[in-house]
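A student in our group prepared the protein record below, which I am reviewing. What it holds is a sequence and that sequence's fold in C-alpha cell form. My question to you is simply how this chain folds and whether the C-alpha cells agree. Do not assume that whoever made the record got everything right. I have pasted the whole thing underneath without changing anything:
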Amino acid sequence: MHDPYPRLRWYCEHDRAKAADDAFAYVSDGQNPANSRRDLLIRYFGLEKSERGDRAREIARGLDYAGFVDGRLFGELSNVYRFGDWALFAKLAEAFPSLGWFQDQARYRGYLFSLVATGRGGEVAKKADEFLAKDAAKAKPAVGPFDRVRFEMLKALAAGKDMVPVAKAANLGVKEYAQALQIAAQWCLNLQRNEECERYASAYRALFKELPPRRYGVKFFDRPVNSIAAWRGIADSLEKTYVDVKMCGELDSLETDVATGRATIEKTALDSKDAKMEVSSFCDVEGVKVVMRVVDANARAVEQGFAGGIGTECYFAPGADAPYICFCSTPKEGVGFVFYTAYSSAYAQRVEFDDAKSPYALRQETEFADGDYALMITLPWRAFYQKLPAAAGTEWRFECLADGCSWGGSQGIHESSSWGRLVFNLKPAEIAAIRRRLVYDTYKTWNRTGHGRLSAFDRWGDSVVGDPEFSDAVLKPLESALKAEAAKVTATMSDDEVNEVYEKGAKVWIGLDHEIDALRQAWLLKKFTDAK
C-alpha cells in the first residue's frame, strides 16, 4: 500500500470501518514513512475504544511526535478528559509521550489526575516531580508559583491527604487561595468523593460575607400593565431595587462564565461608568412582569450602537425546588436566548420563547428614551397553571446578573439557592381574577378544539387507531364531566364559581394530554396486571 491516502479518504466518506482496516494495516508496517504512519495512527486510533485501538497506541510509543500539530484532534482529546474517560486519557498521554500537546502543564496535570482516577495514584508524586524538575531546568520555566501549588495539591490528592494545608502553606493571596479550594472541590466531585467535595466547597463559601436574601413584594394591578409606557405610569408605586451585589464580593477578579454585560463588548467613551440596572416586578391577570431599566445619559448612543450598554443573564423559578428557566438579553435585541432545565410535563410547563403564538409564550418589549433604556418581560400565568401563588407569602425565585453584579446576591451562575425571592401576597379576589382569565381563555380553546373531530376523545374512540374499550370506560366519562364544567362558564360567574370551574375544568383542559396519558397508563396497568 504505497500511497494510502486516496483510498482512505474515499473509504472515510463511504465506509469508515474499511478505512480503519486499511489504516491499521498501514501503520503496522514499519516500512512505511513514519510521518504517514503517525498521522493515520492518531487520526484513526487515537480515540478508538477497542482492542485494535489499544494495539495501535502501543505501536505509537515507538514513533516520534515532536512538533505534531492538529487542532481538530486536540479538541477531541480535550473532550476525552472533559467527558470523564480518565482511563483513555491516560492511555493517550502514554501512547504519544513526545506529543507536545501532552507536555503542556495543564494537560499534564490532567494526565496526573487521570492516574488518580484510575487507581494509579502511587505514580503521581514521582511523575509530578520529574515534570517540575524538567520545567525548572528550562531557560524560561513555564510553571509559575500558583501552578506549582496545583501540582503539590495533586500529589496530596493522590496520597489521600487534605489539600487545604498545601494551599495554606503556599501563602497564597485570598483570590488564589479561593481558586485552589474550587479546584480541590472540582477534583473531588469528579472522583465522586462527595463529602470531601462539600468540605472544600464550604471552605470556599466561608470566604464570602453572608448576604441576606433579597425579597421583593410583587404587587397586583387590576388592569393589565402590558407595555413599558403603561409601566412608566405605575413605576413610582413599585419598590426600587438594583443589580448592585458585586459578583464574588472581594474576590471579584475570579473568573466566572457569565457572558453578559460589558465583558464581551469593547468599552467606548460613550459607555457610562455610573450606569446601573434597576429591577422591578409586579403582576396582573396576564402574568408576572419583570422590568429591567438602566438610567444612562448615553442611552441613545447604546440604541445607535456607539456604546455597549448592559446586558443580562436572568433566572426564574416558580418555587424553591421548581425547574427554572434562564434567559439572556442585550439592550437592543432584548431576550435572545432561553435555557430550560425541564421538559414540559403535568408538573412543569415551559415558557415558550420561539413560538410567539403559543399561550405559554414569553412576551417582551424594549424601549429607549433620552435618559434610560428598559426591557419588560411577561411570564404568562398559563405556564404556571398548576402552581399559581394562591397562598399568602408564596415565594418564587428570580435572579438577574448584569455587568459583574447580581440582583439577588448570587456569587456564580445557576446558583439557585442564592437567588432573590419574589413574594406574593395576593388577595382572594386577585387570585380569582387570574383564574377567571385562565378559565375564559381555556374555555375558548376547549370549545374550539377540545372535542372536535380531531380531538383526543375522538381519536381514542376510533376502532382503527384508538382503543374504543378505553374510550368508553374512561374517556367518555371524563369528556362528560368536562362538558358539564364548560356549561357553567358565563360572563357573570362569581369568584367561587370561577375557582370551582378552574380546579375541575380549566386545569384539566390546559393539561388534557397529560391527564389522558395518566389515565391510559392506569388503564393498561389494571388491564394487564393484578394492580387494583
User: Anything to note?
Assistant: Residues 250-265 have pLDDT under 50 and may be disordered. Residues 26 and 37 are 7 Å apart (CA to CA). The radius of gyration is 31 Å. The chain is about 45% helix and 15% strand.
